[in-house]
Design goal:
With about 450 residues, this protein is an alpha+beta fold. It is built from eight helices and six strands, in the order βααββααβααββαα. Helix 5 packs across helix 7.
């Protein structure tokens, strides 16, 4: 079943750059932010270097199939006294006297050794290295998916912070106007001094709330730049997101879990690790068997550099490790245990994916269901504020009624902003749980 790619499902069109940007501020779009991160973030660079190192390791393991050649050269200044060996039957029983005279002795040699068969040692290492390369390539996909998730969630945080600053700014301006009206009413004697003092206190509280909102915006902007991988800080605002097209989310749990298990690069990487572990078991089994090699040797030796005597040889060797201090047994058992541990981790990962998909799916349903009633609350709160303001101006309502209505309207709008932010996070988490990077950012295939 093909999962639709949801391009960030949120009604955050209103959560746009409602905060006026300074003339020098740049506008940062979501697509630009994601591409900047994927192009230059250290996590991506590190994953690529891991892949390169794994490929070099594969080359090292491949060398076990190839012949090994070597050249040697030596020089000695040595004595030449005869030393009989046990059991020798020299032709001349007259032993020459020992002498301290020394002579030059030169040697030059070359060897070529070709492994023939080692019962899976080299093959196991090579297959393990191949699986490691595949896992490192999937590691890049995991890094890209994680980076996309961090950038998108950080981007939503900036969007929400911009909207909250806008709400706080409009509230502060309205409260200041109310404080001015209250002061004017007090001066003409139509309102008590208590109303003026309450209005002034409310204005100071609104100014402080705006400061908190601005600080939150600064923090969220810094977090987004960090998620992108930028150490330099600059002034910017983020662009609004278009409404999402594509219909309702897939809410069938089992279909979502199946798609996640097929798409998650983390699971594919675990499968590569499993193949590497199986290859290591094969390699460890080979330690119980002999190693067969063939070789070619050449030597040139003598006491004068211009009068050396050459010899050559061809050989076949069989090496059988009879006893290695139980290292072979323990190595084989360790490889088997590692393989079983990876199989258990695979089952554990599948359980974690099911839980992640289920939770993110429920979160999408829960957050989207909040939007309609909250939007209705905003409309009712604004209507109540309008009526309270008219009653206050007409002298029929009191300051407490008016301030409560304004606070209710501001709180309702703030809740909508937070709900829209939660919807954006929920959809992003759902797509991350499915393990599907949007097509526009799939720069590297498996």
């Amino acid at each position: 079943m093909k999962i639709r790619t949801f391009a960030l499902v949120v009604p955050l069109v209103a959560m746009a750059a409602s905060v006026p940007a300074a003339a020098q501020d740049r506008v940062l779009g979501l697509d630009e932010a994601i591409r900047m991160a994927l192009d230059s973030h250290p996590a991506i660079e590190a994953a690529r270097l891991d892949l390169q190192a794994a490929k070099e390791g594969e080359g090292v393991s491949l060398s076990g199939f190839l012949p090994q050649a070597g050249v040697t050269a030596g020089y000695q200044r040595t004595t030449a006294n005869f030393a009989a060996t046990p059991g020798a039957n020299p032709v001349n029983t007259q032993r020459p006297p020992n002498s301290g005279a020394t002579y030059d002795y030169f040697t030059v040699g070359a060897t070529l050794v070709q492994p023939i068969w080692d019962f899976g040692r080299t093959l196991g290492n090579y297959r393990a290295a191949q699986a490691t390369v595949a896992g490192a390539a999937l590691g890049i996909e995991v890094s890209r998916l994680d980076l996309w998730f961090r950038v998108v969630t950080s981007y939503y945080a900036v969007l929400a912070s911009q909207r909250l600053v806008d709400v706080a700014t409009r509230t502060r301006d309205a409260v200041k106007r109310h404080a001015q009206v209250s002061e004017a009413f007090y001066k003409v004697g139509s309102r008590p001094r208590l109303d003026m003092i309450r209005a002034q206190a409310e204005a100071q509280a609104a100014e402080a709330a705006l400061g908190v909102a601005v600080q939150g915006l600064d923090l969220s902007r810094s977090a987004l730049l960090t998620a992108i991988g930028l150490s330099d800080r600059f002034a910017y605002t983020v662009a609004p997101l278009d409404p999402v097209l594509g219909g309702e989310p897939m809410i069938d749990l089992e279909a979502s879990v199946d798609e996640a298990l097929k798409s998650r690069p983390e699971r594919a990487r675990l499968e590569s690790n499993l193949k590497a572990a199986e290859a290591q078991v094969t390699r460890a089994m080979g330690d119980w068997f002999p190693i067969l090699t063939a070789g070619l040797g050449f030597t040139d030796a003598g006491t004068k550099i211009n009068a050396l005597a050459w010899n050559w040889n061809v050989n076949v060797g069989l090496t059988y490790p009879l006893f290695s201090g139980l290292a072979t047994l323990h190595g084989y058992r360790a490889a088997k245990d590692n393989l079983q541990a990876l199989k258990v981790r695979m089952r554990e990962f599948d359980l974690a994916v099911r839980a992640e998909v289920e939770q993110s799916r429920l979160r999408v349903l829960a957050t989207t269901s909040r939007l309609q009633p909250l939007n209705a609350t905003v409309g009712a709160a604004n209507e109540a504020l309008h009526l309270a303001e008219e009653r206050y101006k007409a002298g029929e309502g009191n300051a407490i009624e008016f301030m409560d209505a304004r606070k209710g309207a501001a709180d309702a709008e703030t809740e909508v902003v937070r709900a829209e932010y939660d919807v954006g996070l929920a959809w992003t988490a759902y797509q991350r749980a499915l393990g599907t990077l949007p097509k526009a950012y799939r720069g590297e295939s498996r």
